[in-house]
């Protein structure tokens, strides 16, 4: 726990002993007794001896759990005190939280707007599949006259208002989950940090059309994911894996780039501000207290907290 900086575990040692493994022990004792008992199954003697066996199992386990707690409190006394101080400091910071955009991001290896502009012509039909409420399309210049935005989760009316004087239509998926276009309608589909159905992309693209996908990879913010998703799926999602899925449906890969970088924060306010801007759910300090406590500890020890970033871009052409 010290190696993982798990402040929440040290804080849990301050709580009074509470045994809550009765169900677990009942299952273990039942299986063990079912295998080892010489008595006829479910006979009166079998039931009596099982109740005694179960009671001994629960009492023994409760004693062991209590002794572990007593030992842990003694062994980790300093860690418990430090975790308590960190939690109190974090609560004080949360009460007086201010915006701080002083985080340092390593230079990016590519610009998706510049790459996209190489494949878009003024007369093209272009679709932006995004979860950024139309920000990429809003900043992209010049927009073709036939520009469409698919926002799977946002209110399309609020997004459409951003493009009041621009040739842009904001749409949603059809009730059956398809893109709202006829077959072979699009010259370019741009996927910005959104999930996509490769067969749908294949369907709506014209022959020779381009699919440009810009997404976060497996290693993105892995320091956060390691805390809350320690048993993630095997494999990695990167430019090569993405390109492989598109090649499997007959598309030709034109470009593929992996961009690994870092984010460096010198305060909890900066971390909070970053996530409030890019991922509001993670900005909830109470919900993700373990993460913020770990970050605060590292800031106090090293004067900064660093996170890994990973994004990638793939350009594929329909045959």
TrEMBL record:
Protein name per its UniProtKB record: Methyltransferase type 11 domain-containing protein
Top-level taxon of the source organism: Bacteria
Gene3D superfamilies in alphabetical order: Vaccinia Virus protein VP39 (3.40.50.150)
Protein keywords: Membrane, Transmembrane, Transmembrane helix
InterPro entries associated with the record: 23S_rRNA_MeTrnsfrase_RlmA, SAM-dependent_MTases_sf
Transmembrane spans: 21-41, 47-69
């Amino acid at each position: 726990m010290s190696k993982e900086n798990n402040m929440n575990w040290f804080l849990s040692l301050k709580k009074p002993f509470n045994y809550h493994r009765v169900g677990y022990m009942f299952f273990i004792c039942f299986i063990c007794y079912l295998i080892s008992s010489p008595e006829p199954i479910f006979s009166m003697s079998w039931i009596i001896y099982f109740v005694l066996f179960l009671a001994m199992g629960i009492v023994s386990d409760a004693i062991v759990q209590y002794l572990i707690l007593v030992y842990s409190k003694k062994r980790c006394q300093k860690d418990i005190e430090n975790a308590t101080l960190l939690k109190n400091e974090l609560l004080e910071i949360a009460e007086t939280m201010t915006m701080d955009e002083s985080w340092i991001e390593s230079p990016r290896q590519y610009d998706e707007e510049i790459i996209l502009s190489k494949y878009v012509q003024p007369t093209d039909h272009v679709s932006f599949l995004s979860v950024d409420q139309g920000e990429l399309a809003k900043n992209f210049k010049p927009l073709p006259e036939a520009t469409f935005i698919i926002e799977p989760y946002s209110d399309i009316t609020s997004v459409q208002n951003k493009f009041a004087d621009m040739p842009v239509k904001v749409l949603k998926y059809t009730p059956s989950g398809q893109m709202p276009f006829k077959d072979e309608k699009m010259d370019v589909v741009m996927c910005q940090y959104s999930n996509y159905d490769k067969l749908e992309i294949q369907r709506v693209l014209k022959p020779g059309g381009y699919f440009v996908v810009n997404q976060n990879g497996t290693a993105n913010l892995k320091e956060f994911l390691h805390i809350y998703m320690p048993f993630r799926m095997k494999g990695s999602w990167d430019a090569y894996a993405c390109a492989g899925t598109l090649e499997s449906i007959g598309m030709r890969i034109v470009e593929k780039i992996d961009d690994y970088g870092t984010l460096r924060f010198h305060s909890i306010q900066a971390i909070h501000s970053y996530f409030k801007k890019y991922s509001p759910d993670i900005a909830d300090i109470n919900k993700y207290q373990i993460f913020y406590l770990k970050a605060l500890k590292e800031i106090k020890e090293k004067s900064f907290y660093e996170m890994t970033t990973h994004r990638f871009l793939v350009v594929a052409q329909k045959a």
